[in-house]
Design goal:
- Chain B: Keywords: Carbohydrate metabolism, Glucose metabolism, Metal-binding, Mitochondrion, Oxidoreductase, Potassium, Pyruvate, Thiamine pyrophosphate, Transit peptide.
- Chain B: Its EC number is 1.2.4.1.
- Chain B: InterPro entries: PDHB_mito-type (IPR027110), THDP-binding (IPR029061), Transketo_C/PFOR_II (IPR009014), Transketolase-like_Pyr-bd (IPR005475), Transketolase_C (IPR033248).
- The complex is a heterodimer of chains A (446) and B (351).
- Chain A is an alpha/beta fold and 446 residues long.
- In chain A, 39% of the residues lie in helices and 12% in strands.
- Chain A contains 14 helices and twelve strands.
- In chain A, the strands form four sheets. Chain A has a six-stranded mixed sheet with strand order 2-9-10-6-5-4, with helices on both faces. A two-stranded antiparallel sheet of chain A has the order 1-3.
- In chain A, helix 4 packs antiparallel against helix 13, helix 4 runs parallel beside helix 14 and helix 8 packs parallel to helix 9.
- Chain B is an alpha/beta fold and 351 residues long.
- Chain B is 36% helix and 18% strand.
- In chain B, helix 8 links the parallel strand 7 and strand 8.
- Classes of the chains: A alpha/beta (446), B alpha/beta (351).
- The interface between A and B is large, with 58 and 45 residues.
C-alpha cells in the first residue's frame, strides 16, 4: 500500500512538477489486487536533480525550496540566471478544436507555469529518449519480437496525464511504452521488460505490449480489444461511484473495428464515464487513413457521442482538451470521443522502415515544423520561462537516466526457469503444469 | 418435515418441492439461488447479458434477480457479445466481479478473443499484477431441434486454454456449489450449463442448503461405485451413464460413474484411481470426437500409472463428427444414446 502510494505520488510529481505528498490515497487504491512483492519494483527512481551550479544565487534556491523537499523530482533545477529573470507563468494561444455535437469547446488559451513546462518537457524528452534507446537496442538484437515506438506522439501521453488524476484509469493498445512511463513505471523497468529480464515491469513475461501499472491496464495486443475493456473500467468507476474516469485509447486503424461501436453504444446508453481517444497518426500500419476509412473524421465516428478533434502535437492543446473531456464525463454526461491528430516518426513497428507508404520528406516536415518537444521548448524560451542551459541540463540528466536504464536492461538476468509456470491463477493453491513431455511436471504458484 | 420447511423458507419464490422429507430443486433454480446468494454476499458481484434483467433470463435462470437487485446489479445488454464481454472483462480488471452470461455458448464465439486474450492470459502476461475475477456462464452443447449453429459443445475449446478454469456441472447441487465457487474465484471461469438440464429436479443435501455451500473446482465426484468399468463423463451424460449402469447392473456389470464436474483442471487422479480398480475406461461426452474431452482423458491415462492397469484400450463415446442436423431422427442419432453407451461398455469389456 505504501509503495503504491509512493508510485502514485511519483507519477503526480512527474506531471505537476511538484513534490506532492499524498497522505491518504485510500479512495484511489481500488480493489484491483496486486501482488505485494512486485510493488516494490514499481518504485521509480526519480531522476537525480542536477547539481546546483556555481553562479546559482540564493534566490533561485528559494523557488524550489518553497514547494517541497529538495530531493524530489522537478524541484531543484540549475539556474544560471536569477529567478527574477524568468517568467513564472504565461498564457498561450492554442489551436481551436473542432467539435461534434457539443455546444462548448475546449478553451483557446492555455496557462503554463514554468514548473509545469519544465516537467512536461522532462517527461516528453524522457519518453523520446527511451524510445530511441529501444530502437537502438532492437537493432542490436537485444530487444526482439514486437516493438512499436511512440516517438513523435509524446504530447498525447503527457498532455493526457497532465489533465487526469493518478486515480483515473487508462488503457491503450500496443504502442504503450510512453503511457507505461506516464502512468508511473520507471524507464529501467520498461526497458528491462523489452529486453525480457526479470527486472522488467512484468518480470519479462509480458514483453512490449503487456506492461501494467496501478490504474493502467496495458498494453494490449489485439487491435481494438482494449476499447470495450476501457468502457468496462468506466463501468466499474460508475458502479463504485468514485468520480473517476477511464481514458480508453485506440488508433486510426482500430477506429473501424466493430467492437468499438459496440462499446460506444453501451457507453452512451449507460452514460459511462469513458473518454475514448483516437490517436490518429495518419497510418494504420502501412495503410493511410484515406485508404482505410470511409470517413476520416474520427471524432465524429461516435455518431451520437460528442467529439473533439485536437492538435495532438501540442501538449497544451491535448491537456486542455482532455480536461474538457474528463469534466464532461465526470459531470455525468456520458462518454466523449477525442481525436488527437498526431504523427509517429518510426514505422508501425521495428520491422517496418516506415518509408514505403510515406515519404521521407513528410516525416522530415513534421519533425521540423511540429515536433512536440521542440514546440514546447521554443514556447518557453521565447517567453523567457527558462534558459537554453536549463534545457541542456535536463537533456543531459535524461540521457544519463536512460543510459543507466539501458545498462540495467542489458545486464539484468533473464527470469529464472522456475518462474515459467507461475502466475497462471490468482490467489490459488500451487498446481502442477504439464511440460513439453509427460515426465516434466512443472510447478505453478499464484 | 423440518428439512422441507427449511427448504421452502430458504428458496422463497424458487420452485422446489419436498418429497418424503427430502428437498428437491431444479438445476435452474439452484443456479438462481447461487447467484442470489453471491449477489447478496458481495456488492462487487453483478450479472450482465442479454435478457437477464427484465425478461427474467432467456431460460429463466435469473428470474427475480432484477426485481430484487435492480438495474445496477442486473444489466440487460444489447446483442453485442464482443462489446459486452469486453466490458465485463474490463470491469473485472477494475475491481468488480462480473457474471457474464452468454445466451448460449455458441454466441461466445463472437467474443472469444475477449475471453482468451483479455481474460485468460492477462494474469500471466502481467506477471501477477492484474487479475480478472470473472465468470462466463450459459448453456452449452446440444439442445432440442435448434440446428447446427446453436448446438456446439465448447468444453474442449475453452479447456485447452491455460489461464481459464472450465466447469461443467451436472446436478442441481453441482450447479449451486460450483457456481458459487466460480463467482468467489479470483480467476476467469467458463461455466458450462446445459439447457436440457435446467428443468431437471435433483435432491439437495442438507449441506447444500447453506449459503456458504461451495464445491471445489478441480475435483470430480464418483456418483456410482463400480468394479468392472470406469465411465468418465460430464454434464447431461452423467444421467445417461447412470441409466446405462442401472441397465447393466441387471446383467452383472457394475459400472463406476465419475462425474467430472470440472473439465479444466481435469481431476485425472480420480479417473486413474478408478481405472486402476476397474481396468477399463469409457469416456462419454456430447461434444465432437476430435481433440475433445475424451481424447484428452485417454492421452492422460496413457501417460500415467493407470495405463498399466488397462485390460483394453480406452473407448470414447462422443457426438457424431458432423454439424448438428435438425430432423428429429437425425438429431437423435447425432448424440450418444444410452444404447450407444451400453454397446461401447460391452465392447470394451469384450462381452
Amino acid at each position: 500500500m505504501k509503495n503504491m502510494l509512493t508510485t502514485i505520488s511519483n507519477a503526480l510529481c512527474r506531471i505537476t512538477g511538484r513534490n506532492v505528498l499524498l497522505i491518504d490515497l485510500s479512495e484511489y487504491v481500488n480493489v484491483t489486487s496486486l501482488a505485494t512483492p512486485t510493488l516494490a519494483q514499481t518504485l521509480r527512481q526519480p531522476p537525480k536533480p542536477p547539481p546546483v551550479g556555481p553562479r546559482a544565487p540564493a534566490a533561485a534556491q528559494l523557488v524550489s525550496a518553497q514547494t517541497d523537499r529538495l530531493d524530489g523530482p522537478g524541484t531543484s533545477v540549475v539556474v544560471s540566471r536569477s529567478f527574477a529573470d524568468f517568467t513564472s507563468q504565461a498564457t498561450f494561444d492554442i489551436k481551436k478544436c473542432d467539435v461534434h455535437r457539443l455546444e462548448e469547446a475546449p478553451p483557446l488559451k492555455a496557462e503554463l507555469t514554468r514548473d509545469q513546462g519544465l516537467q512536461y518537457y522532462r517527461v516528453m524528452q524522457t519518453v523520446r529518449r527511451m524510445e530511441l534507446k529501444a530502437d537502438q537496442l532492437y537493432k542490436q538484437k537485444i530487444i526482439r519480437g514486437f516493438c512499436h515506438l511512440y516517438d513523435g506522439q509524446e504530447a498525447c501521453a503527457v498532455g493526457i496525464e497532465a489533465a487526469i488524476n493518478p486515480s483515473d484509469h487508462l488503457i491503450t493498445a500496443y504502442r504503450a511504452h510512453g503511457y507505461t512511463y506516464t502512468r508511473g513505471i520507471a524507464v529501467k523497468e520498461i526497458l528491462a521488460e523489452l529486453t525480457g529480464r526479470k527486472g522488467g515491469v512484468a518480470k519479462g513475461k509480458g514483453g512490449s505490449m503487456h506492461m501494467y501499472a496501478p490504474h493502467f491496464y496495458g498494453g494490449n495486443g489485439i487491435v481494438g480489444a482494449q476499447v470495450p475493456l476501457g468502457a468496462g473500467i468506466a463501468l466499474a468507476c460508475q458502479y463504485q461511484g468514485n468520480n473517476q474516469v477511464c481514458v480508453s485509447l485506440y488508433g486510426d486503424g482500430a477506429a473501424n473495428q466493430g467492437q468499438l461501436f459496440e462499446a460506444f453504444n453501451m457507453a452512451a446508453l449507460w452514460k459511462l464515464p469513458c473518454v475514448f481517444v483516437c490517436e490518429n497518426n495518419k497510418y494504420g500500419m502501412g495503410t493511410s487513413v484515406e485508404r482505410a476509412s470511409a470517413s476520416t473524421d474520427y471524432y465524429k465516428r461516435g455518431d451520437y457521442i460528442p467529439g473533439i478533434r485536437v492538435d495532438g502535437m501540442d501538449v497544451l492543446c491535448v491537456r486542455e482538451a482532455t480536461r474538457f473531456a474528463a469534466d464532461h464525463c465526470r459531470s455525468g454526461k456520458g462518454p466523449i470521443i477525442m481525436e488527437l491528430q498526431t504523427y509517429r516518426y518510426h514505422g508501425h513497428s521495428m520491422s517496418d522502415p516506415g518509408v514505403s507508404y510515406r515519404t521521407r520528406d513528410e516525416i522530415q516536415e513534421v519533425r521540423s515544423k511540429s515536433d512536440p518537444i521542440t514546440m514546447l521548448k521554443e514556447r518557453m524560451l521565447s517567453n523567457n520561462m527558462a534558459s537554453v542551459e536549463e534545457f541542456k541540463e535536463i537533456d543531459v540528466a535524461i540521457r544519463k537516466e536512460v543510459e543507466e536504464a539501458a545498462q540495467f536492461a542489458t545486464s539484468d538476468p533473464e527470469p529464472p526457469l522456475e518462474e515459467l509456470c507461475n502466475h497462471l491463477f490468482s490467489n490459488d493453491l500451487p498446481l502442477e503444469v504439464r511440460g513439453t513431455n509427460p515426465w516434466v511436471q512443472l510447478k505453478s504458484v499464484s | 418435515m423440518a428439512a422441507s420447511v427449511r427448504c421452502f423458507l430458504r428458496s422463497g419464490k424458487v420452485r422446489h418441492y419436498s418429497l418424503n422429507g427430502y428437498c428437491y430443486m431444479m438445476v435452474r433454480d439452484a443456479l438462481n439461488q447461487a447467484m442470489d446468494e453471491e449477489l447478496e454476499r458481495d456488492e462487487r458481484v453483478f450479472l450482465l447479458g442479454e435478457e437477464v434483467a427484465q425478461y427474467d433470463g432467456a431460460y429463466k435462470v435469473s428470474r427475480g434477480l432484477w426485481k430484487k437487485y435492480g438495474d445496477k446489479r442486473i444489466m440487460d445488454t444489447p446483442i453485442t457479445e464482443m462489446g459486452f464481454t469486453g466490458i465485463a472483462v474490463g470491469a473485472a480488471m477494475a475491481g468488480l466481479r462480473p457474471i457474464c452470461e452468454f445466451m448460449t455458448f455458441n454466441f461466445s464465439m463472437q467474443a472469444i478473443d475477449q475471453v482468451i486474450n483479455s481474460a485468460a492470459k492477462t494474469y500471466y502476461m502481467s506477471a501477477g499484477r492484474q487479475s480478472v475475477p470473472i465468470v462466463f456462464r450459459g448453456p452449452n452443447g446440444a439442445s432440442a431441434g435448434v440446428g447446427a449453429q446453436h448446438s456446439q459443445c465448447f468444453a474442449a475449446w475453452y479447456a485447452s486454454c491455460p489461464g481459464l478454469k472450465v466447469v461443467s456441472p451436472w446436478s442441481a447441487e453441482d450447479a449451486k456449489g460450483l457456481l458459487k465457487s466460480a463467482i468467489r474465484d479470483d480467476n476467469p471461469v467458463v461455466f458450462l450449463e446445459n439447457e436440457l438440464m435446467y428443468g431437471v429436479p435433483f435432491e439437495m443435501s442438507e449441506e447444500s442448503q447453506s449459503k456458504d455451500f461451495t464445491i471445489p473446482i478441480g475435483k470430480a465426484k464418483v456418483e456410482r461405485q463400480g468394479t468392472h468399468v470406469t465411465l468418465a463423463t460430464h454434464s447431461r451424460y452423467v444421467s445417461f451413464c447412470l441409466d446405462a449402469a442401472a441397465v447393466l447392473a441387471k446383467e452383472g456389470i457394475e459400472c463406476e460413474v465419475i462425474n467430472l464436474r470440472t473439465i479444466r483442471p481435469l481431476d485425472v487422479e480420480c479417473i486413474e484411481t478408478s481405472v486402476m480398480k476397474t481396468n477399463h475406461l469409457v469416456t462419454v461426452e456430447g461434444g465432437w470426437p476430435q481433440f475433445g474431452v475424451g481424447a484428452e482423458i485417454c492421452a492422460r491415462i496413457m501417460e500415467g500409472p493407470a495405463f498399466n492397469y488397462l485390460d483394453a484400450p480406452a473407448t470414447r463415446v462422443t457426438g457424431v463428427d458432423i454439424p448438428m442436423p435438425y430432423a428429429k431422427i437425425l438429431e437423435d442419432n447425432s448424440l450418444p444414446q444410452i444404447k450407444d453407451i451400453i454397446f461401447s461398455i460391452k465392447k470394451t469389456l469384450n462381452v
